[in-house]
Amino acid sequence: MLVKDYMLQHPIMIEPHKRLADARALLVENEIYYLPVVGDGKRFLGMITPPRLAIPPERMASLDVWEISNYLANLTVEKVMLKARDLPTIGPHATLEEASQLMIKTKVGGLAVLEGPVVLGLITDNHLLVELSNLLGAFEPGWRVTVRIKGKRGDLLRLIRAVTDRDWTIMALGNVRTPKKPDDWDVVLKVVGCTREELVDAIAQLDGQVLRDIRETASYAYVKS
Amino acid sequence: MRRSEDIANRPVVKVENLGIAYETSAGDVLAVRDVSFEIFRGEALGIVGESGCGKSTVAFGMVNYLGRNGKIAHGSISFQGQSLVGRSPEELRRLRGDQIAMVYQDPMTSLNPVLRIGKQMAEVLMTHRGMAKEEARERCVTMLRKVNMPDPELVLQKYPHQISGGQQQRVVIAMAMLNNPALLVMDEPTTALDVTVEATVLDLVDDLRREFDTAIMFISHNLGVIARVCDRVAVMYAGEVVEIASVHELFANPRHPYTQGLIRCVPRLGRSKASSVLYPIPGRVPSPDNQPAGCTFEPRCDYAHESCRAKRIPLREFQPNHRVRCLFAEEIDASQWTPSEALIPLAQASPDSEPILEVDSLKTYYRQASSSALSLIGLAKPRYLKAVDDVSFSLPKGITLGVVGESGCGKSTLIKTIIGLEELSGGKIEFMGVDLGGKVNKRDMATIRELQMVFQNPNATMNPSYPIGRQLERPLRRFKIVPPSEIRAEVVRLLRAVKLDEHYYDRLPNQLSGGEKQRVGIARAFAGRPDLVLCDEPVSALDVSVQAAVLNLLAEIQQQQNTTLLMIAHDLSVVRFFSDMIAVMYLGQIVEIGPAEAIYAPPYHPYTESLLAAVPIPDPTVEQAHVRLSGNVPSPLDPPSGCRFHTRCPRRHLLPDDGKLCTTTVPPWQEAGDGHRIFCHIPLDQLRAFEPAVKMSQE
C-alpha cells in the first residue's frame, strides 16, 4: 500500500498571490482542511489550513473599519501560509505506514505528496482512517470476528484454514498485538458464506484460540439455501 | 466495496448556464446557450451531437481559446473550485500547462513538425516544471511506455512525420499527461484513426483515467466511441445540452427525441439492410443566428406540439442523474416510435446471378525511386510497393460487396485500379465480358458509362463555380443518355431521385450541406445508369443522421436500377448493414471473403476477429472480446514472408512451434461453405471454436 495509490490526486490548490479571502472561500465551499499553495508548474510553496485564517485581534485593534477592509484586501496567501520549508512532505512511493509515522511524529494531519518540488497529491489522516476501514472490510457485508490467538508459529494459518477449508470466504483480515498482552494477537476477520453458529462452532474447535467478539456488519445475515 | 473520501465526489469542473457568443457584423451570435454539467475526478463525460452543435465551442470556451471574436456571454465555469471566467490570458496559459490538457483530432496540429519528438516532449517538463534535460527525457520515456509506445527511446529521436498516425496521437496523449493534469479535454481524438488503433487509444484513455484520476471531457460524434469510454454523456443540439445521463441510462432509456433519433440512425453491428432500416433525422441543425424561439429541435421533432414553440425549454430533472430538455420526456417512449415516412427493409440481393465483375490475380505495384548510385546508372534492382497483390474475386450482378481493412491495406487502390485511375501491374479485370486491363483513355464510352464512382469527399469532386444542374448535365450529354431537349427534365428527375427538389438546379455547391453534396455526387454517379458503382467511403465525411439518409438513398437507387456496388468503408457496422458480401483486406491481399453474415461470426480470419473486437459499438451492454493488434501494418514495400498477417496475428500461437508455418508458407484458402473463404493456416475447426468477438445483448 503505497501513498501514490491512496492519496488524493489533483487536490484543490491555490497560488501565492491570491487573496486570503479566496483561500478561505475555497476551504469553506469545498469543505477541505488543507490547501496546498503552488507556484508555476505546481511547485510546492506552502500550505493554508483553517487556523492560518485566524487573524490575531491585537493586529486589528488599532484599525478602523475602513482600514480593516483595506488590510483584508491586501492580505495575500503567501503572507499567511505555512512555508514549505517548515512543513513535512512525503514522496509517492512511501508506504502508508511511513506516511502515518510522519504525521504522528510531526503532529500534522495532512502531507503534501511531492515528486521533486511538484505537488502530486495530498494524503491526510482522513485518508488513512478510510483505508484502515477498508483494510478491515468495514464496508463489506459479513461476519466481523475478533479472535485472540497466541503468537505461535502456525496459529494464524490454523485460523485461516478453519474458514477456507469450509469454503467460506475471508473478505478482510487484520491482526494486531493485543494491548497490554504483547504475546497475544488479536485477529479481525470479515467472513462470508456461513451462518453465525457455524462460524462460532468452527472457531471453538481451535485449541488456544478465543473468540472475543462476533458481529454482523453492513446488514449481513447469511441464509443457508 | 471500497469507500473513498468525500472530496473525491466533488466536481473537478462545474459549468453552469454557460453561453458563448461570437461577435459578428450583425451583432453577437450565441453559439452555445445555457450549458450546464460537471465532471468528477476520474470520470469521463462524453459530449455527443452532430457537427455545428457547439461541442468543440464548449471545450474551447473552457480554456478561452475562442479566437478574437469569441467571448463567454454568460454563465460560469468553475475548475477545482475557482472560476475560469475573467481570468487573465497569462493565468489561463499557466493553468492550461499545469492542470488542463487538450488533445485534438489531428495529432499533427499539436506537434511541431520541425522538432524531434524527444525535444518537444521534454520541453513541456523543462518549461512547466523546471526539470533538468536528462530527467525530463527519462520521464518522457516512462510516459511513452505508459501509452504503450513500442521502442520509446527510438521514438524520441524521430520527427513526427516519421511515426504513424496512431503513434502520433499516443505522443500527444503522453505529452498531455506529462504534467498530470486534473482535466483532459479530448476533441474527437480517435476520429482520424483506424478502428484497430482507435481501440488501443480508447483502452489507453480508460487506463490513464483510472491511474491518474484525471477528469476527462470526451467530445465525439461517434456514439460507439462514447459508449466505450464514457461514464456519463451529454447530448448537445444547436448549442444546448438536450439530455445528460449515465451512459447505460442514456442508451437504454433515451428520453429526448434527438437522442432517440441519433441512436436510431446508426447501424448496429449485426443488422443488415434486409433486417432493419436506418431512420435519418429529417432537416438539419439550425444555424446559431436563426434558432427557433421555442424548442430548438421542434422543427425536426416527430412529437412537436404547440407548447414546444411557445418558449424556450429548460433542462430539467427527469430522474435522479438524468436531465432532459423536453416537455414530454415522460410520455416519449423510444420503443413506441413509428416513423413519419414509411421505410421498409430492402430485399437482400441473391448472389446466384451472373458475375458482372471478375478480378483475377490483380496486382497494382508502384515503382519506388531510389537514390542509390546504382539506381542512378540504372543498375539497381527496381523496388515495388505492392499496394494490391494477387487479389481475386467475382462480383455477381446486383450485389453490394463491402471492402474493409485498415488504412494502407490497398482497398482504395483496388477500386482505383478497377475504375482505371491506377494502372494495372498484373492480373486481369473483366467487366461484363470486357477486359479492363488497358489504359483508361482507351476504354470505350459504354464501358466508362457502365462503371461510375462515388467519392468520399463531395467537396473535392465538384466544380465550385458550376451550378448543380450543369454538373449533372455533363454525364448526360457525354454519355448521350437522353436527347438534348430532355436533359433538363432528366436532371430534375435525378435530383428528385436523390430527394432534392428542382430548386437545387441553379444552386452552387457552396450553398449545399455536406449531405446534399453527397446526394448530388450519387445522382451524378447514377446519371449514366451504370451497372457497377464504386463507392470510396461515401458516408464517412457525413454526420450520422445524414449518413443514414445517404445510405438509404444509395440502397434504394441500387435496388431500383439493379446496380452492383463495390463499397469501401472503415466503419464495420456500416459495411455490415449495407453489404451482401464482404471482403477483408490486409496489406494488399484479401484475407477473407464471403456473405456478410458469415464474416461477422466464427469461423473468421484472426484479422477479421481483431477488427470486430475493435469496432466501437453504440451499446454499452454489448460485450466485446479484448483482442488488440500490436504494432503497425508492415510496409507493403517489403511485406512479411508467409502469411502477411503473421507479424501481428494474436492467434498464431494456436499452431505448432508458435506458428512457424505462418512465417514461412503462404496460407491456403479454406472453404467455410456458402462462398465464405478464409486465407489462414489455422484449421477451420479451430477457427470455428473462437468465442464470438462481439456478444450482442438479448433483445
Overview of this structure, please?
The complex is a heterodimer of chains A (225) and B (699). Chain A is of the alpha+beta class. Chain A has two domains: 3-132, CBS-domain (Roll); 136-217, Alpha-Beta Plaits (2-Layer Sandwich). Helices cover 34% and strands 31% of the residues of chain A. In chain A, the strands form three sheets. Chain A has a four-stranded mixed sheet with strand order 1-7-6-5. Chain A starts with a helix and ends in an 8-residue tail after the last strand. The relative contact order of chain A is 0.14. Chain B has 699 residues and is α/β, with parallel strands linked by helices. Chain B is built from 23 helices and 26 strands. Chain B has an eight-stranded mixed sheet, with helices on both faces. An eight-stranded mixed sheet of chain B has the order 18-19-20-15-21-22-25-24, sandwiched between helices. In chain B, strands 2-1-4-5 form a four-stranded antiparallel sheet, with helices on one face. The mean pLDDT of chain B is 86.
Give a quick rundown of the structure.
Chain A is built from 10 helices and 11 strands.
How does the helix and strand content of chain A classify structurally? alpha+beta
Tally the helices of chain A: 10
Number of strands of chain A: 11
Which structural class do the helices and strands of chain B define? alpha/beta
The greatest interface here is: A-B, 30 and 31 residues
Task: Provide the CATH superfamily of the largest domain in chain A.
Answer: CBS-domain
Q: How would you characterize the largest beta sheet of chain B? A: 8 strands, mixed
Secondary-structure arrangement, i.e. CATH architecture of the largest domain in chain A: Roll
Q: Class of the largest domain in chain B, according to the CATH hierarchy?
A: Alpha Beta
CATH architecture type of the largest domain in chain B:
3-Layer(aba) Sandwich
Q: Determine the mean pLDDT of chain A.
A: 88
Task: Characterize the overall form of chain A.
Answer: elongated
Strand content of chain B: 15-25%
- Spans of chain B of at least 5 consecutive residues whose pLDDT stays below 50 are none
InterPro entries (chain A): CBS_dom, CBS_dom_sf, Diverse_CBS-Domain
Domain CBS (chain A): 7-65, 81-139
Organism (chain A): Candidatus Chloroploca asiatica
Pfam family, one (chain A): CBS
